[in-house]
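User: Predict the structure for this protein chain, please.
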Amino acid sequence: MMLINYINSLYSLFEKVFLSSVFIGFATSIAVVLFLTLLIINVVSYMAIRRFLFIRKFNQGLKLSVMNDAPGISIITGAYNESVTIIDNVHSLLSLNYHKFELIVVNDGSKDDTLEKMIAEFDLVESHYIFETVIPSEPIKKIFRSRDLAYKSLVVIDKINGGGKADAINAGLNISKYDYFLNIDVDCILDFDALNIMMEVVLNEKKRCIGVGATLRMSNNSIVKRGTLEEIRAPKNMLVRFQELEYIRSFILGKMAWSHLNALPNISGGLGLFDKEIVLNIGGYDNHSLGEDMDLVFRLVVYMQETKQEYCIRSIPQTLCWTEGPDTLKIFVRQRVRWARGLFQILKKNRRVLFNPKYGKMGFIIYPYNLLFEFMSPFIELAGIMMLILFFFMNKALLIGLLMITFAVITFYIALSFISVFLDRKIFNYYKSGTTTLGISAMAFLEPFLYHPLIIYCGLKGYFEEFIGKKKIWGEMPRKGFTKNN
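Assistant: Here is the predicted structure, written as structure tokens:
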């Protein structure tokens, strides 16, 4: 009886303090701030896209593809147990439209026949390669070159597994010969003119452009022949469709705004062009980070601020890369938990920059945004769900108020999804069918109830695993291969 009275007393106090108009006012204020922030991001994104399209009218791409003095690009990709797609991917990368590039494929201790397939397909033989180890990586066992002149730009490294993509890229950096390098996931298919378009952005900037990213989307269900994307199709798998919607919204609306403000927090590990000198100056990729792509951008910005060098990092709204998205819950959760742990690591490691004038936009825009809108988001949303459950049993009036705010937020996000998908179609027209475009957009109605709770779960699970110091494991990402047009 005493326990029941004690609980009732606590609830009475809780109701007086929190379950009041003050709480609803506070929740409304948070929603308004969210709306305004996203509205500003949308406006700035539209400005950035218009600027990109205006510059593209004066396209230098065709000139770059034949210019002898065009900057060279080293394409570096790691391959671990990629037997299913490795041949198509290498052929795709070798066929890119650019005058001066090399392709470095790092076989990172694969346990399957990834290396054997490349040796047979491209007529590889061991080469005596002289290079300087600038960045530490696991030992390189052999380096292969092709006897076929058609594949003269291909270099294959066979090395001991380094436990993650970062170590493989670092090994490739040590033998790369050009001033810029393209970090790409081996399962990706690139646009034929991707190198031209990305390098054009670098050359059009007045400041030193140290990194360029581009829009990615799902290749699942698209038709691929000999490494070439013949027909773009919407994913059939519902989980992959959610990822497609998420990627379009993130790249078209989110990253373009940050790019325009020169406050881009991340360049996707699936496709990123970087200034090699600056990357070498900061010691390459951090092999201990589970979010090595975002970690690299953070460290690049911190380095440029500390050395007082002017710089810019840009994103491209045009889709230049198609990647195979995880189509099972097991693999998807593994990927997103790793991303959450990586974000936790990055914010913890760089906490000194928060509101530090020395770091400019990093301290006042990039870090605070990622802390409040990315890292804290799962906690805030979980708290909101718990409050909804509590109000359902204890205070119907406040439940209605909170439901109205929740409905407004969800409706706003659905509108953003429709805007991003239809804007992408209007400008680039990847999905020729309006029905397909509408089908992808319609996933926005299901996203808050099916996909987003999964994202919250992965975020909280990742934070918990990082907090308790669980062993860092990259985890395998099995490939099913591309749909081929026979």
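The chain has a mean pLDDT of 87.
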